[in-house]
Amino acid sequence: MFLVYLMLVGLIFGSLCAYVAGEKGRRRGSWFIAGFFLSLLALIALAAIPALTEEERQRREEQKHGKADEELEEWRRKMKKPL
Fold first, then answer.
1. What are the pLDDT tens digits along the chain (83 aa)?
2. Phi/psi class of residue 82: alpha, beta or left (left: φ > 0; alpha: ψ in -120 to 50)?
3. Nearest to residue 30, comparing CAs of 60, 62, 72?
4. Are 35 and 43 in contact (CB under 8 A)?
5. Would you state the pLDDT for residue 77?
6. Domain regions of the chain by residue span
């Protein structure tokens, strides 16, 4: 019964953290995991950090896509090498 209680509390705090993180422009999945395991501590930490500005969001998106492009190019180079 105690395990069910812990899971329920984890899901509630994980969902709250994911929602707040989304509103602040942060990664929802990472904050869900933090909220699930750290509960109130993660929610307090999330409340303490500032929201991302539009410029910061755009820069993160560009970095994410740039990294994906680099990985794709590396994979293409590897595939062109003869065995």
1. 999 999 999 999 999 999 999 999 999 999 999 999 999 999 999 999 999 888 888 888 877 777 767 777 888 888 887 65
2. beta
3. 60
4. yes
5. 83
6. 1-51, 53-83
Residues in the chain: 83
Two tokens, residue 23:
């509103």
| Residue tagged 């707040």 (tokens) | 20
pTM of the model: 0.70
Show the tokens assigned to 42: 């993660």
Which amino acid is located at 41 in the chain?
A: L
| CA distances for 48 relative to 20, 22, 65, angstroms | 11, 15, 28
Supply the pLDDT for residue 66.
72
- Distance CA(33)–CA(79), nearest Å, equals 36
Q: Centre a 10 Å sphere on the Cβ of residue 36 and count the other Cβ atoms it contains.
A: 20
- Rounded Cα distance between 32 and 77, Å, is 36
